[in-house]
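Page header: ASSEMBLY MODEL / three components / 1191 residues total.
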Amino acid sequence: MIEIRPEPKRPPRTSGLRTLLALAVATITLGSAGTALAVQSGFFADKPEGCVAPDRSLQMYAVELPKDPSTNQIRLGYGLTPQTASYPGPTMEMIEGECLEITLHNQVPEATLAQLRTDPNHPLGVSLHVHGVKYTQTSDGTVHSGSYVASGQSRKYTWYAKPRNSKTGSPGTAGYWWYHDHVVGGAHGTQGLSSGLFGGLVVRRQGDPRPDRTYVSVFGDRQSINLRRGAEADTCDAVNPQPGPTCLVAKVGERVEFIVVGIGNDMHTFHLHGHAWADTRTGLVAGDNKALIDSIPVIDNKTLGPGDSFGFQIVAGDAVGPGHWMLHCHMQFHSDLGMATTLHILDESGQMPPHTAHGPAQVNGPAAGSGATSAPPAGGSTAAGAPAHAGHQPAGS
Amino acid sequence: MIEIRPEPKRPPRTSGLRTLLALAVATITLGSAGTALAVQSGFFADKPEGCVAPDRSLQMYAVELPKDPSTNQIRLGYGLTPQTASYPGPTMEMIEGECLEITLHNQVPEATLAQLRTDPNHPLGVSLHVHGVKYTQTSDGTVHSGSYVASGQSRKYTWYAKPRNSKTGSPGTAGYWWYHDHVVGGAHGTQGLSSGLFGGLVVRRQGDPRPDRTYVSVFGDRQSINLRRGAEADTCDAVNPQPGPTCLVAKVGERVEFIVVGIGNDMHTFHLHGHAWADTRTGLVAGDNKALIDSIPVIDNKTLGPGDSFGFQIVAGDAVGPGHWMLHCHMQFHSDLGMATTLHILDESGQMPPHTAHGPAQVNGPAAGSGATSAPPAGGSTAAGAPAHAGHQPAGS
Amino acid sequence: MIEIRPEPKRPPRTSGLRTLLALAVATITLGSAGTALAVQSGFFADKPEGCVAPDRSLQMYAVELPKDPSTNQIRLGYGLTPQTASYPGPTMEMIEGECLEITLHNQVPEATLAQLRTDPNHPLGVSLHVHGVKYTQTSDGTVHSGSYVASGQSRKYTWYAKPRNSKTGSPGTAGYWWYHDHVVGGAHGTQGLSSGLFGGLVVRRQGDPRPDRTYVSVFGDRQSINLRRGAEADTCDAVNPQPGPTCLVAKVGERVEFIVVGIGNDMHTFHLHGHAWADTRTGLVAGDNKALIDSIPVIDNKTLGPGDSFGFQIVAGDAVGPGHWMLHCHMQFHSDLGMATTLHILDESGQMPPHTAHGPAQVNGPAAGSGATSAPPAGGSTAAGAPAHAGHQPAGS
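Prediction written out in full:
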C-alpha cells in the first residue's frame, strides 16, 4: 500500500526543499514497500572525503544553565563536560588536515526545548552546525537532514579541516569560524543561538604563530557581547583578574587572539582601542613581499553581520603600553546601551601601572580614574581564555 | 528672446546638481538663440576611451511581467527577447578588453511607469545603469544625464570592460557586478529595482576558469532572494530539476559560480552550507605564493549591503558530497521568514543519492527527510543557469 | 582616614571598568594617605614606544559653530584655527614613522556641552580619539582615562604612525582613518560625533602616490553626508566651483582621493558612478605580481558601518570622461531622502563640456539636463579639498 504521510504545517521557508523531500518519502515508500522509517541504511557518507578516520574525538554536552539574572531568559550552553558548559561554548582549535569527531550529548530537558519552540510541529532537539570546515549532510546539524539530537540522546558529528587543493584552487579551511545549534526553536536554530548554543573555532595552518591567549567576542542582539552587556560583560577582579569570557586581560607583549562572531538580527562593528590588525586571515602580514604588504588594509573597526566571523592576533600593548583599552561596538546607540567591554593590558610584571589622569581636576565627576592610581592586579594567564586543547593531537604531529 | 524654463519641483537630493544644470540651460539658450531642445549635438562622448567600436551588440527588452502572485506587486523584467524577460534579468558576461553595445527597448507601458512614480514631475522611462565597467555620461542611465528611454523608444548603451592600466595602477574591471534601472519611480530607480529591473554581470580576465553553471542570488527587501521567499525561492522538481533562478542544482564536481547582489533597504549576510570560498575576486586563490595564500581570508558567510556585489566559484560537493545544502541569509529573522533556499547537489550520475536521516526517530515530525530515502532526480545541466552568451564574441578571440 | 568617594550613578556600560577603577581609587587613597586628587605623577607613558619626540606639532581648536540651518541642531567643529573650524574637521595627513603632537584647545562653551549631556554626572569636556595610529592611555580621549579637556582648557595628544614590524608581523599604520570626540554627551562621544566633532586622517607609506586633491565623505544618520543631505551636500557654483566638503570637483586626469567614514547608528553603502577602485589599502594595485593582481576584488560600492573608514585614489574621469558623476548611498531610501551628492569632473581645461542629453525629448520634465548644453564652469583646483599640510614636515624628509 502506498501511503504518503500528511505534510505537517510549516513556515514557507523550506517549502521548496519540503516538496523535494516529501516526494522522496513517497518514492522510497514505493520502492521499499514499507514505512519510510524502516529505511536506515544511510547512503550519505558519514565523513567528508579526505577524512579516512578521525584524528581525535571529543565529547560535547549541551546543557541548560541558570537563567540570565537580568532578563530571566533561558540559557543553554555547550561544554566539554556538563559541569563546564558555558556561553560561548568551548573554543575549538583544529589544524588543517585534521579530522575531528565530536559526540554531542543533548542534556537539555525536553520541556525546555518545548518552551523555546513556537511551532508545535517543530522537532525537539539540539544540533551542531559548524562554519568553514567540511562535513557531510549527516553532520549538517539541520532539521531537513535529520542530523540533530533529541533530549537524552547522543550523535556523532565529523568535522574535517580540509587543506588547500592547489590543483583546483579550492581554498583551505584555516580561519576563524564558529559553531552553533541549527534546530532549537525553528529550522534556523534562532532560539538556540539566542539562548547560548554557540562557540568559536579556529583552524590553523602549519606554521601559524600560536597565541598566548584567545578570547571570543560574540556580538549579538540586545547590544550584547557574549549575551551580556555593561557591567556583566566585564567582571574582572581588579586585584586578581582571571581571564575568561567576561574578563579580557593580558600582559604587555603577549600575543592575544580574538575570535569575533556576529549572531542574531543586527549589524554591528567591532572596534578595539589602541590596537589595529591587518584585514587578512590571521590579522598579521606574513613575508616581505612589498606589493602584498602594501595592498593589505589595516583596520581597527570591522563591520560584522550575523553569521560572519573573523579573527586576528595582536601583540598586547604594542607601542601603546598597558592600560584599560576599550572594546566596543561603534554603533553609537549600541555602545551607549552597554555594548562595550575592556581589554585590560597589564605591564610585563602582570601589574596595572599606577596611573593618573591628565584631564581636568574632577572633584566629583564620574571619571573615577581621574587622579587615581590603579591597584596592581595579579596577571593570571591561565586556561579560561585559551582554546580547548583537550585531547588535541593534530594530524601528523 | 532669452527664456529660462521654470524649474519643476523636485526632491532636495539633486538640488546642487540641478543648480548646475539649470544654469547650463540658461547658457545654452543664450548661445543658441533658440530652444534648448534644438541642441542635439552631444558633446559628451558616446563611448568610453579605449572602446573604438563595439565588439558585439545585444538587444535588451524591458517588459512588464505578470504581477507577483503572492503580493500582487507589479513585476518588470529585462530580457534578451521580450518573451524571455525575467527577474533577475539575463546574466551578462564580458571579458576584459571587450566593448559591448546594448540597445534597450522600453516595452513597459507608460501607464505602468506612471503607477510606479509618486512625483508627477518625474519622467517616465526605463534605463540601464551598470556597476564596475566603464561608460560615459550618455550611458549612465540616470535622469540628470537624460540617458533613459521612454515607453516605446530605444536607446544604445555602451559598456567597456577596461583592462588594468599597469602604469597608473588603475585596476581592471574583471569582477562580479550587476546592472539595474536608475529611473523608474524616482531618481534612484528604487521602484524599478523593487519591481525586478536588475541582473548580474560577470567580467572575466583572460585565463579565468570557466564555470559549468552560474547562479544569481539577489538579496533584497521583504526577506527576498530574487524577489521570492520560502517555497517560491526553490521550485525544483524533485524528479527532474531544471536549473534556473528558482532551482539551484548541480552535480558533484561541477564548477558552480554565484553572483551575489544586494538591493533595497536592508543589510543581509549570504551564507552557504558545506562550502566556503576565498574572499578574492573569483573565490579562488591562484598561484603558489605562500605569503599571498596565507593572507587571504576564506569565508562562508558575507555581509551584503544594497549595491554590493560579489561572486565566487566553488566545486560542488567538494569533500562534502551531494545533498540539500542550505543557502540563506544569516540574519535570523530573515531566514526564519523565508529568506532561504537550497543548492541541491546531485551525485556524479545526476542523482540525489538515497539517504536516511540519522536523527531521532520522528513518527510525525516536520523533518520530512527523517528516515526517508530521496528520489533520484535527473540532473539537468542546461542553459537556464548559464550566463547569456547570445552573440558573445569576446574581443580578440 | 580612608575615604572612598561614593560612586556616581552611571550607565551600566562601564561598570566592569568602573569596579576596577573604583578599587583603584581606594588603593591609592590607602597608599598615599591623602586624597586621590593629590596624586598627579602619571605613570602611563605620554608617548607611544617608538616616538622619542614629536616630529611636528599642531594646534587644534574645538569650537561651537552656527546651528544647522535646517534642523537647528548644535554644530561643533575642529579647526587648525578657531576661524577655520568646520565639520568635518581638517583632514590630517601623516607618514609612517612620524610622531605628531596636537594641542587641543576646547573653546566650546561649558553651557553648550551641558546641553548635550543627559546624565548630570557625566563630565563636560571635549577630546580627541583617533583610529589606526598609536597613542597611550593619556591620549586615548576617553572619560575613564581622564584624557579630555574642559572648556577653556588645553591638552596635548600624541599620535604615532608606527611603521610595520617585520619581525612580529605587526602591521604598519598606513591607511585611511579618522579622529573624533569620545566624551561629549556620554562615554562614547555620541553627541560630539553627531554635532560635528570628527575628521579624516590619512597615513601614507613612503612611496605612496600623492593625490591632487582629497575629499572626505562622512556617511551618518539622518541620511547625511558630512551632516548634510540633498542640496546642502552639493553647493558647487556652476560657473566657478570651489572644491570643499560640499563641492566635489576635479579635472579629468587628476588623482582624486576619498576618505570615507561611517558614523552614528546606521549602516550605509558608498557608491560612486563611473569609477571603481581596488579593495586594497590605497584603492590601487601596485606591482606586477599576477597572482596578487588577480586576487584583489575591484569594487564601486562598499558597505560602511559606524566607525569604519576606508579610502582610495582614482584617476578622475578615467576612460569615462567628464560629467556629473553621482556619489550616493545605495540604500534606496537613504538616497531617495537625499543621501547623494555629485563628483563634478571637468575636462582638461577645467570646463564642463557642453553636452546634450540623448534621452527622450522632455518638454517639461525634471531632467533639466535634457537637451541642454552645460555652462563651462571654471575649474578651481585650490586648497579647500586638500589635506591639512600646515606645518607638515614628515620625519626623515
